Amino acid sequence: MSFHPFSTRAVVWFKRDLRVHDHAPLVAALSHTDAIGLFVVEPEWLNSPECDASHVDFALACVAELREALAARGLPLVVRVGTMLEVLTQLHNELAFTHLLSHEETGTGWSYTRDVAVGRWCRGQQVVWQEFTQTGVVRRMRSRSGWAGRWQARMETPLQLLHAEFTPATSIAQGDLPTLGSLGLQAHHKTLQPAGERAARRTLKSFLQERAYDYRKALSSPLSASEGCSRLSPHLAFGTLSLRTVHQATEVAIANTPDRTMAYGLRGFAGRLRWHCHFMQKLEDEPDIEFHNFARACDGLREEAFNPDHFAAWCEGRTGYPMVDACMRSLRATGWLNFRMRAMLVSFASYQLWLHWREPGLFLARQFLDFEPGIHWSQMQMQSGTTGINTLRMYSPTKQAQDQDPQGVFIRRWVSELSKVPLPYLAEPWKMDISVQRMAGCLIGHDYPAPVVDDKAAMKAAKDRLYGLRETKQARA
Ligand SMILES: Cc1cc2nc3c(=O)[nH]c(=O)nc-3n(C[C@H](O)[C@H](O)[C@H](O)COP(=O)(O)OP(=O)(O)OC[C@H]3O[C@@H](n4cnc5c(N)ncnc54)[C@H](O)[C@@H]3O)c2cc1C
Fold first, then answer.
1. Residue 339 in contact with ligand 1 by CB distance below 6 A
2. Which among 241, 265, 280, 433 could bridge 374 via Cys, Cβ 3.0 to 4.6 Å?
3. What pLDDT, on a 0 to 100 scale, did the predictor assign at position 47?
4. Which of 348, 379, 387 has the most ligand 1 atoms within 8 A of CB, as the residue to mutate?
């Protein structure tokens, strides 16, 4: 393809930023002679242990919408399947592009390794790779002091909006969008949230205008949280909305609402947007927390004790603890669960079942449509008591059932075997005597599992071990 020597040609590399609004690389591309967009389905992603077909399905639906939105603005979106180096090499042969424009990413080991390779490739080809920030995460940060101020400043910078259209200059095959089948993935059976930038903006609007009213009250129960929380997490994870857009819209909503309850809900939500980046920053600073205990004094604590039968029962929602099983089955069907119930699932795996957090963390990463590496691995360690700095939070599934599902609606919805169990026994069905079990059509150990462990004894043993460990010189150090 002919190309004037003083022209510049940009490739806008879309990753977890599948949007048109507030997209700095896209805006930067306007100043080049011509540009194309690029989305690559990378085998390293598909093969990573955190990836699930539901993630790929969601991403492809976002890409389909993005392609239309970009086409309307004159920018072709090329979609390829392959490693970044293969794709970049091939594209460079075809287009001789001069600039690669993308957002920074705080990902797991594979994306870091990929970025190092892309950096080396760009230097070798004299392609300028320009990376833009899109969250509050600060790269190569020396000290945390002043972080909150930097976060605020980034969130308050004006949105990067396209002020002109692209003039199509390159003709290039955009490529058909792959399907799950063509990628060798099995179709999943989850009811996913709607994908794409339009759905993201609708969700944001309905939360800020109506649903935020009950936010703080609705947060903890899985019954109310599915409506009462923002449900923006997959959109933030795949970047169909920028965090800055959400932050700024929330501040406007707070300023404009005359209603104190609404303002209270919105403020609670606004604080969590900061947590989003606070947790991502932990992974940026200590990439090792994806694999190793944050507090190395915890090494060896659980590794040898891993019980595969307990792990399987937890994954399948057959632990014999109805609240745990209901949450797991609901998560597996929908790809989402509220914070408190995520924490309870991890607490049960880590304390009652004494499982090391890595395998449960990988399993949950595949279930959560909103998998965000920095939040996920930090939270997995916090809820397992391996950070060494946070108070140990151990959740009793029976108490959580009584507090968050007092009428048993959630349990009955997701654990159909228990549908006729009388309410007083619903959180602890093993306490039914045999005549009640028969009446309820639920024989424990036959229709529904007996508890895999004794909850109270297991929690006490876990507490003794962890508090004992915290007393050691090594842990204090
Ligand atoms: C073990 C565990 C793993 C988790 N893994 C993830 C993950 O992979 N991806 C993810 O987005 N969230 C994760 N969370 C945090 C939280 O549960 C989800 O962000 C939240 O449930 C998403 O629903 P929402 O968007 O309706 O949340 P809202 O309550 O409406 O919150 C809005 C946004 O704030 C951020 N946020 C909320 N709570 C937290 C928190 N505790 N820490 C950090 N950011 C927060 C998220 O970006 C969220 O989308 C995890 C929590 C636990 C306990």
1. yes
2. 280
3. 97
4. 379
pLDDT at residue number 391: 77
Pocket test for ligand 1, best of 206, 375, 378, 383 (most atoms within 8 A of CB): 375
Share of the chain above pLDDT 90, in %: 86
Rounded to the nearest 5°, which phi and psi values hold at 401?
-65, -45
Tokens 């819209």 found at: 249
How far does Cα 22 stand from its chain's mean position?
Answer: 20
Look at the block and give the residue holding tokens 């599948």. 18
Residues 326-370: pLDDT tens digits? 999 999 999 999 999 999 999 999 999 999 999 999 999 999 999
Under the banding of pLDDT at 50, 70 and 90, the label for residue 475 is low
| Structure confidence at residue 4 (pLDDT) | 62
C-alpha pair distances (Å), 289 with each of 82, 97, 296, 422: 28, 37, 10, 44
Give, as one character, the DSSP assignment of residue 351: I
CA of 339 to the centre of ligand 1 (A): 6
pLDDT computed for residue 145 by the predictor: 87
Count Cβ neighbours within 10 Å for each residue of 345-381 and write b for 16 or more, e otherwise. bbbbbbbbbbbbbbbbbebbbbbbbbbbbbbbbbbbb
Instruction: State if residue 371 touches ligand 1 by the CB under 6 angstroms criterion.
Output: yes
Residue 343 in contact with ligand 1 by CB distance below 6 A: yes
Q: How far apart are CA 77 and CA 69, in angstroms?
A: 10
Instruction: Give me the domains of the chain, ranges plus CATH numbers.
Output: 9-132 (3.40.50.620), 197-285 (1.25.40.80), 290-476 (1.10.579.10)
Cα separation, 321 vs 428, whole angstroms: 7
Q: How far is the CA of 340 from the centre of ligand 1 (A)?
A: 10
Q: Report the separation in Å between the CA atom of 354 and the middle of ligand 1, taken as the mean of its atom positions.
A: 24
Quick: pLDDT tens for 225-251.
999 999 999 999 999 999 999 999 999
For 99, phi then psi, to 5°, come to: -135, 140
Nearest CA owner, ligand 1 atom 12: 375
> Both tokens of residue 164?
């002109």
For the CA of 338, the nearest atom of ligand 1:
21
Ligand 1 neighbourhood includes 375 CB (under 6 angstroms): yes
Atom nearest to 339 CA in ligand 1: 17
186 C-alpha vs ligand 1 centroid, how far in Å? 27
Instruction: Give me the phi and psi of 285, to 5 degrees please.
Output: -75, -35
Helices (H) and strands (E) in the chain, counts: 23, 5
Instruction: Compare 172 and 63 and report the one with higher pLDDT.
Output: 63
